[in-house]
Design brief:
The complex is a heterodimer of chains A (234) and B (418).
Chain A lengths: L2 E8 L10 E8 L4 E5 L6 H9 L6 E6 L9 H11 E4 L11 H12 L10 H14 L16 H13 L5 E5 L7 H15 L5 E6 L10 E4 H4 L3 H5 L1
Parallel strand pairs in A: 3-7, 3-8, 5-6, 6-7
Antiparallel strand pairs in A: 1-2, 1-4
Chain B lengths: L1 H11 L1 H34 L6 E5 L3 H9 L9 E2 H8 L4 E13 L2 E6 L2 H5 L1 E2 L3 E2 L2 E4 L7 E4 L1 H6 L7 E2 L2 E2 L14 E7 L9 E5 H7 L3 E2 L2 E2 L7 H4 L8 E2 L1 E6 L5 H9 L6 E4 L1 H44 L1 H9 L4 H42 L10 H17 L1 H13 L7
Parallel strand pairs in B: 4-12, 8-11
Antiparallel strand pairs in B: 1-16, 1-17, 2-15, 3-4, 3-10, 3-16, 5-6, 7-11, 8-12, 9-11, 13-14
Helix pairs in contact in B: 1-12, 2-10, 2-12, 2-13, 10-12, 10-13, 10-14, 12-13, 12-14
Classes of the chains: A alpha/beta (234), B alpha+beta (418).
Keywords (chain A): ATP-binding, Nucleotide-binding, Transport
Pfam family, one (chain A): ABC_tran
GO molecular function (chain A): ATP binding
Chain lengths: 234, 418
Amino acid sequence: MAIDISNLTFSYTGSEAQSVLSIPAWHVEEGEHVFLYGPSGSGKSTLLNILAGILKPLSGTVELLGSPFSALSARKRDEFRARHIGVVFQQFNLVPYLSVLDNILLAAHFGSRKTPEGRRSSADVQARAEALLARLSLDKSLLHQRADALSVGQQQRVAIVRALINDPELVIADEPTSALDSDARDQFIDLLLECVGDGKRALIFVSHDRSLASHFSTSVDLQTLNQKAHVHAA
Amino acid sequence: MLLKVALRSLLNRKATAILTVLSIMVSGFVIFGVEHIRQEAKSSFSRTVSGTDLIVGARTGQLNLLLYSVFRIGNATNNISWQSYQDLAARSDVAWTIPLSLGDSHRGYRVLGTSQDYYEHFRFGRQQALELAEGSSEMGVFGAVLGAEVANKLSYEVGDPIVLSHGTGKVSFSNHTDKPFEVIGILQPTGTPVDQTVHVSLDGIEAIHIDWQNGVKMPGPGISAEQVVERDLTPEAITAFMVGLKSKIATFRFQREVNEYRQEPLLAILPGVALSELWQMMGALENILMVISGLVLVASLLGMSTMLLASMRERQRELAVIRAVGAHPSFVFLLIELEALMLTAAGIAGAIAALWLTLISAQDLFSERYGLFIDLDFMSARVLIIIGIMFAATAVLALIPGLSAYRASLNQGLVVKT
């Protein structure tokens, strides 16, 4: 199972009464592509930060890929995120002053295993990045450009490359299409789904735009998932 | 990777980074400069004269006598009569004396009238004697022995004629053209004011002034150089003299004898004591300079800290990205620290380069104006310690933006609220 949440609650103040997130149970299978509908106030950011390991739940457990993620130390969660989770934001996915290649190498740097055989050379990373760029119909000359020299659409596609460079089992996309126009939006989702592939890789695609749900096999409304959603929104 | 990100991040904010580096550079320049010059001044001072027990001149301030007799700075207010000199030099405690007669110059370099005893008894540095690079030191009446720098700067060789000028200005309107001197010897460099001195005999000084009175040449044809040699050239007065005693124990007794000399008001000083008094005067100044340059450093490092802290706001997204790809907050903290240290390193490198260039160009000025010989090599152990302190202070002050970034990236999460 890619994600297994049970009795999750979270509160920024540490008090149960002021919790903003309460999810009794949620499962995502390996290889499953989930559309998570999350309007503002539904606890979307909080859930994503918990799934990424930045925030720790107040109670309950989050298991990712079979490991007790929420029980790990902060440093272990960071390592886990680097190796097993790819993240695509709505915008500003890249460190602006680094080249595209360096952005990708940065992700590879944190995602590389500590064992000698697990560590890949930057040439390997570059070869893999070039292959991914080609699939996303981006020219490999972009690798040596500064990230902020790219158009928003290009940056979003580079973000896919960056998210997939460590071959993660879980990809989290947070409104990755909100900065794109409608034509580019559909194209981007198609490319994302193609690159994420079928295999074992799970995808959580979060958006407040219900019309995108048609691209995905599974669709979940965070407002029904999170029992505290309406409280927070009010 | 950390290094690369830090470097790119700084290059991305070139303008602020360069300004910060410049401010660190200025403070480093001041600190290294003050430190180096005080070291050099100290060693330069202490090496100017050694082995001389007392310096005797007309009654004046201790420092004034030291400055004009040893450093050739300033002028004597009064002279010592030849009789008094002869009388004191003949005392039983005295082993040797070196008469000093100042007041003329050659193209900005001081002329020192003295005797052959100068070459025999004068010592500098660690009891080093003067040595000739070429020629001889038998000055006769119209022979001149040049200090190393005089010969070098003015491209003189043994045999060249030189004309002395009355007074000590760089440009003089009254020259002793009628009685030229001949360069007979050039001394080895000493790193003391000797290098900037033209040495002639007391006879020579007397000879060029024989038809002068009260600093003005008397009208008329005067006495020619050939005629003057025949005359009695015993001077009427000298400016000062250095004394070597037979026994150090007699130093204070002889000093008192001089100070209580009845025929005319004289002053005897111990060069070492006068040097350390001079040094103490400089010391207070130098401590103030050190404090000021320390404060300048703190100000510039605070400026750097402010710059890094102010940039945190615009860098929130970038730090969120770095966190998202798996960086621990400590990576973010180290990134800020490293950026600060790189700025300081660049500032220090700039300060070292600037100081080196300044020393190269100011070396001559210092030696000509102040008789200070500044070595170009300023990387002393103390300077290295100061560099260490600068880096440590940087690391400490960078804790402010570093910890702020650490806490921000710990709590903020991946989604930066816009």
